[in-house]
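step: validate -> pass
step: tokenize input -> pass
step: predict -> running
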Amino acid sequence: MRRRLDQALVERGLAGSLQEAAGLILAGRVFSGDRRLDKLGTMVRPEGPLRVRGLLPYVGRGGEKLAAALEAFTVRVAGRVALDCGAAAGGFTDCLLQAGARLVYAVDVGRGQLHWRLVRDPRVRDLGGTNLSNVGTLVPPPGLLTLDLSYLSLRVAVPAAVRILDPTDPLPEIIALVKPLFELRTNRIPSGPAAYRQVLTGLVEAFMPAALPVHGLMRSPLPGRSGTVEFFLHLRPGVPPALEGQLEAALAQL
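step: predict -> pass
step: emit ->
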């Protein structure tokens, strides 16, 4: 009987979870012979050849996205307590750990999604089944937050995240993944520079008077799961720089 490709990868030990398998498939790293298998719904024979080309640096492809943002925004992670909201399999969480975070809270409304390796890591506190707005007092509190959320605008998520940040941290920071579909009230996936400019400038203006305005923005080096264009925002205290140059650079890559 044929099996779904993601299930086959887990059963053969080529992936530690369905989420990791999905990441490998969407990254185009799964092959049967010389044929690339890059569709999640592909059905394969139990005895059919399967191999994974190259190893993912993180448990989820989100880790590669975040790593690029941390480097571009020059964010110091080593020794800090962080919170990853929208953790899912834990790509962001894994990236933060590899960058030297001493503790990461992995928050997600879903349960049982976090990769088994992270579940067993003493530096990770799994807060699956938790909504961002319901996160209570954390000890120790995080000074760095990452947001990778669906179906929720950052205009709502960022204020909820700010209250969780360590009030004693001299430089609290938020790295937020922007998914344009959830920032515009439309049923159609926005596309094109004009739509993306509207999303990004709207967010920058919305956070301008806040305690943590936008200090940096960039296009994500990898697309969303359905090929959608995504961006990152870097929010922290202080007078923000002029962002027109960064905005133009992000849009020029389209």
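step: describe -> The helical segments are 5-11, 18-26, 62-72, 91-98, 116-119, 154-162, 193-207, 244-252.
step: cleanup -> pass
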